[in-house]
TrEMBL record:
It comes from Pedobacter cryoconitis. CDD domains: SRPBCC. This is Orotate phosphoribosyltransferase. Gene3D superfamilies: 3.30.530.20. It comes from the Bacteria. Keywords: Glycosyltransferase, Transferase. SUPFAM superfamilies: Bet v1-like. InterPro entries: START-like_dom_sf.
Length: 132
């Protein structure tokens, strides 16, 4: 299993960060420009990654003010788990960590690990920008 992680500190209380992440409609704001055909509800989203694949994900687990886990709701090119954890820093800020776990063979790892890392970094960066 390939695990890619990216963390950021957000200048908002944990409940606000969690509420934003808990609604899949908000995740479109976190996506890079190569994502299109976005469609979402509170619990799921589908989109196309330019020159790669169409992906449909749904929230499979929620632990209020702690973590969210999203998994593919349709057949994906590989097993995938997208997890967000949020932790109260005790000073009105929150540490948000985005963890992408993907079951990649060696060939897929060479092709996908870089773009997945870029995606995780982009999403945490955007989260900090949006929730100033």
């Amino acid at each position: 299993m390939t695990v890619i992680e990216s963390a950021t500190t957000v200048n908002q209380p944990v409940a606000k960060v969690y509420a934003f992440l808990a609604d899949m409609n908000n995740h479109q704001q976190l996506m890079p420009e190569n994502i299109y055909n976005w469609s979402s509800t509170t619990d799921d989203a589908s989109f196309t990654i330019q020159n790669m694949a169409k992906l449909a994900i749904k929230i499979s687990s929620r632990v209020e003010n702690q973590e969210l886990i999203a998994i593919p709701s349709e057949k994906a090119p590989f097993d995938l788990e997208l997890k967000w954890t949020v932790a109260d820093n005790g000073d009105g800020t929150t540490t948000a960590t985005h963890i992408i776990s993907a079951d990649l063979n060696m060939m897929m790892k060479m092709l996908a690990a870089g773009p997945l890392k870029k995606l995780a970094d982009h999403q945490t960066e955007r989260l900090s920008e949006i929730l100033k």
